[in-house]
Amino acid sequence: MKLVVFNTSKQERSHFESLRASRGWQVLLFEDRLTPEFDLPAEARDAEAIAVFVNNVVNSETLAKFPNIKVVATRSTGYDHIDVEECRRRSISVYTVPDYGNITVAEYTLGLILALLRRVRPMIEQSLHGLFSRENLRGNDLAGKTVGVIGTGKIGKEVARRLAAFSVKLLAFDKYPDEAFARETGSMQYVDLETLYRSSSVLTFHVPLSAETHHIFNRRSLNLVGWNTFLVNTSRGPVVETEAIIEGLREGRLAAVALDTFESEEVMMEEQFLVADQLSQSAMRNALATYQLLRSDRVILSPHNAYNTEEALQRIIDTTIANLDAYLAKQISPNRLV
Known about the structure:
single chain, alpha/beta, Rossmann fold, 5-stranded parallel sheet
């Protein structure tokens, strides 16, 4: 099999290179993202398999670069960057890595919640400037707060388990409530989304991106939340509307916000401001608005980093290789979408 890997990190390189000897595969590695603009070298065009990441684009245009492609393996849980229906139409198998980051992302989420409540960003910025005053650094306890968990899939459940240890009241919203899990936590109650927004002083988002969840928190939602609400998003950027964040911070309905994912994050992280002619007006507008958020000490932005631990990356590599092995062996795999 000929495999092309995009967004190859240093840690991944040796593992994928070893497949040449251990599996006899032809393997080409690129640090670049797969995008419609990527100029694919001729030696990669006959690949049967590609391994991509969340900031790649797998659609009719990029798939057309690979006339022999049979399988797409994404090194992520989410797959909104893949046109699954187009893959199905072309009889291309698609695999994900569903379980690598449950604990990893949950721990990061909890860290962001505590960082907001205890004003960690302004504390660090003051200290770096030699200002060792507690002025303007008074924070809030997490204990006793009502925390709203939007989405109780595998990651949302891990977040809820950890929050339960902080003596909070847990409210949850999910299209498919798991009442058995709610009883297991001993402190969680499923409610409708409006009730959750009205009743929670901390909001944390753990839903996949879909037509239903796009802007599940928006300017209308903002009018439901109480003053000085804390918000954390470690799911997908478009789940939370950028304009709602800006308006909420300006009004004071949002006390502080931590975004590991945000709308048009690919523009910020790939520094594509210099190629604005390739970007939609909405992408540029959201990116510029998010850039302005960086000026506020009530905002923490991180570059889609919640998954990024040594242990999680190893799980991604191992599962991706296992997915490709399963495809070649024609084995049934729970990680296969198509």
